[in-house]
Amino acid sequence: MSLRTMSYLWSEKGSVSGTTTPRTEIIPEFRRRRCGVPKLSFAKVLALSITSLVFVALLVGGIIKLVHRNDNRGQEHYAWQDFYRLNGFYNGVRTLVATDKFVPDNRYGHGEPPLMLSQTGDYYKEKMPPMEPEAYNPYPSYHSAEYLATHEPVHTCYLDSAETITVPDVYVYPGVPQGMSDPSFGSYDALGLRKDVCFDRFGRLGPYGYGYNASMGGTGLGEASENTGSEKVFEQTGYVDYSNVDWGSAQKRCYEKNAARFQENQKAGKERVKRHAYILRTWTGYEYTEHQLLSLRAMVSELSLKSGGEYDVHFLVHVKDASIPIWASEKVYRETLEKNVPQEFWNISTLWSEKQMELYYPEPFPGNFANIAGSSIHGVYRSAHFPLQWFSQQHPEYDFFWNWEMDLRLTGHYYEFNDAIGNWGREQPRKGIWERSSRFYMPEIHGDWNNFTQFVEEEIPIKDAPKDIFAAIRSGPSPVWGPVHDFPHDEGNLLDVPQDNIPPHSYDEDKYEWGVGEDADLLTFNPLFDPSLTNWVFREDVNGYNTSLPVPPRRTAIITVARLSKKLLDTMHEETYSMKHTMFPEMWPPTVALHYGHKAAYVPHPVFFDRDWDMDYMNQIFNYPVNTWDSPFGWGEHNLMGSSFYYNSGFSSALWRRWLGQWENNEGGRAQEESGTGRMCLRSTLFHPVKHEHNPVE
């Protein structure tokens, strides 16, 4: 089994019923003892020799299996599998409490977490949730005097051209289930996301067609699941008929009504609102399930229509059959589009193909250091950024481009999530930003974000320090400060550095001021790590540089999900077409940002784990791997299988389906929810990957 396709390891007890192995048994102690050397007969020596040869053969075979990660990998057992299982995720809406009474079930490896509340107490006796659902409004106060003093007014957008169908609100419960787990990575407080509310499936997806049937314009999903109290949502939202909605036309109308907000030349005292393209990377033959439709409708409604056109949602559709000349015939283009995309999204879709990218970024791309994938440079696997760069050149009206994948899901509100991330990135100082972004932020270990910033600063090696004992302790590369442009390269093989990206003063002189108030050019959802310090398999898939020189310095963020500025994408585009530079997709945007001094940061969004990790052990595993091969961005990636966000996570899919009320791994479903504490209610969480949503509800 390859590094890129490992599936989640479900042990016999692991994520089903938990294990009770104490923390002290997870990492065994090895003790040495002195032994005399006995005299051995020839027969014993021969037997020992044969045994040793067998042992060496087995050891070599085991190493080969480890290196190649073959199909036997799924039988391996990992230390994290022996941590206690966390069950608080599954406590339902009948256990809701205000956050001042909330106690998470994480014990951080210092004791067994409590059982699910559905197994004890009286929560199951009262069927109705103890709280009423409320409309959720994370938008600025568009009609307030304060907002209107600095911005053009926001005009209401509708689903239909007659302006009779308003965009419904999302509903939340003003509390969280007692005993729910807290995130291990990231923080609601750091990002400014609300953590005092939770989203159940009816309040979150009901406004988009969940919970009522097709005759009323819905999907029919959820009608057979536990739904006590869900009628209170529909009493407020009504039942919206989505059968004839044209999202492209709705977005266009919304933008045109609010165009004054986005114009370059604003009236005196007014601020221009920057625009975002929210790009969904899809392909021909993709199956748009009814569950998927709900998430897609939520994106357009919450990001575009409810925000007065601040965002436009786009489908960037990969036409896999390169023989289809989508660029040569409008008829062929339209037929291909209509065959592969649901009608409601036709007018927000753009087609592209690898053959088209070959024309846009023609060969040659010389000097590859290591093409581990063994595939074409224009293949989407190695150059998923090509169509994104191309799209950004066709749409100069956008300031930011969100590169989004089809297997992402969010329990929270899209606008709140995106807006909070952008605001957080804007307030980050450039001093120490690359070093902070290379680590997983763990509030249980690091404290609040300010404390984490200071903590990382103290770990950063001293620049130009004397060779004394203290300097030896803080050994390693100097902090990144401005463009990393001084690596060995051929003359004329790099672009000029933008003047705005050159530091105004030295690193030591800066008081965490440079960069504050500056929008981030790159925001990623996993750490920005140095691949040369890991055995990440694609670390040297680098094209266009002199291979007789060292590989250029680079950074990587696993999963291509990110927010990129137009400025960064312009640099990436020019590097590709004029310098013939490119790298593996997860490495290219961070590396261009590193070389040219663009502002980049890893967003500390909340990430949950299915096990109650000892936090000191977790910090060691993820932030201080002992050896190169222990890095979580390589052979140590199995440590993220039980997380809610990583490329190979299995817990993400499982938890999302349980939240939908589905039967998962002999647990969940309608019967368990009805006999227990009701349906799940989760705080805002980004899940990846979610590969399917078709399990039964009972």
Short structural description:
This protein has 698 residues and is α/β, with parallel strands linked by helices. It has helices at residues 14-17, 42-68, 145-150, 188-191, 201-205, 231-237, 247-257, 290-305, 330-340, 354-360, 385-394, 414-426, 433-437, 443-446, 449-459, 469-473, 566-579, 588-596, 615-623, 651-659, 669-675; strands at residues 96-97, 134-136, 170-172, 176-177, 276-283, 311-318, 349-352, 400-405, 409-410, 522-524, 542-543, 562-565, 582-583, 600-602, 663-664, 667-668, 686-687. The chain has a domain at 422-602.
* Largest sheet report: 7 strands, mixed
Strand order of the largest sheet: 7-6-5-8-12-10-14
Strand content: 5-15%
Give the averaged pLDDT, no decimals.
87
Cα gyration radius (Å): 27 Å
Low-confidence stretches: 1-74, 464-476
Gross morphology: globular
Number of strands: 17
Oligomer: single chain
Number of discrete helical segments: 21
Structural class, by secondary structure, is alpha/beta
**Measured distance between first and last alpha carbons:** 32 Å
Percent helix range: 25-40%
